[in-house]
Amino acid sequence: MASRANHHVLLGCALLCAAAFFYSRFALGGAGEGQPAATSNLPVASDARLAGDGKQTRFILDLDQPISFHAFPLADPYRVVVDFPQVSFRLPPGIGTAGRGLIRAFRYGLVMPGGSRIVFDLTGPARIANASVLEAANGQPPRLVLELEETDRASFVQSLATESRPELRPAIGAAKEPATPVVAKVESAPGPAAPGDLRPVIVIDPGHGGPDNGTQSGSEIMEKNLVLDFALALRDRIEKSGKYRIVMTRNDDTFVPLDERVRIARNQSAALFVSIHADALPRREGDAQGATIYTLSDRASDAEAERLAEAENKADAIGGVNLTEEPTEVADILIDLAQRETRTFSNRFARILMGEMKTTTRMHKHPLKSAGFRVLKAPDVPSVLVELGYVSNKEDLGHLVSESWRSRTVGSVAHAVDAFFAKRMATAGPAEPKK
Ligand code: ZN
What we know:
The chain is built from eleven helices and 17 strands.
């Protein structure tokens, strides 16, 4: 999940004071980026710092070579995003958690092949007064400098109109490296099945990624990495049988917007969508433990489910995507339109999964819940979201980082998949492509 801290901040304008504590405490590690193999030729970002006050704040990023970039504001919550060609981030651990002046915090990471991003969370509306890259001079390395000035909401909102449109973001397309404009995401999207491959498609969806760390324990253990490890192990296990075609929404530390995840499942005519997450509770909200399986509902089954769905649905705000500019094809689909059959299958899989998982892992005291998770909204794809456990709970965390726990639990999920499809085939005959 996106931690409570983000959740607070992302509630919008009322944000600020109460969230500050949580924010620095739980949420925003400057995201370490999993180091991809071929980083040797990438520009290197070696340090970053903030200066100034609540009227004017300056961000400086030390580089080893000048880069092109594009900076733009996003509202609700107030953010500034800087996109540039892929950079190897070698910043001090924990950087970005403590803000200064107009910048509450910042995160960074990969948002697409060839494209990196820094997302700044602001304390209020601010104007980009200056954004430039300086050549090395006077013993200083090349630097990216971003200067923000306090402004009012009306001016801020007006600046969005032109600045936030994706087609006006030239930085990544202008890369010296192989050009990877916004469509790169599509190029890297999973391909269609080979002709004649009628195996059911299972989409495995590791939550978060890139600048969106998800929840975390300390500055080291991040949800985005735990769930990716689990999802990759699950893919390998399920693929072994040869009975299914597996499609991953991400297989590295890249940010993928929620709607894109849903779109992948729909485009692949998936027979099952499994989203993998891990939860956390702040210490003062007590202790919770065990795995929980969620399905889609327009009414949350309880307050915790509602809180969690709201937090998970903020992933796009955390990763820096401006929802208002995203295609609304899926976002606009009302939950009511989800086909009844899809829901029946989702609930059936959730029950089978619970039965299998409880043999290998500790379950939450109420292990089956439902709420309005955006990532579960494909109307024609049975979908569940699994919270593997709580990184805030010592014993759960011990499981989450344990290879033997992972292997056993992956095995139980794979069993559930087999049981689900065995029943489906028996009642419906062989799967057929939906298109
Ligand atoms: Zn999550």
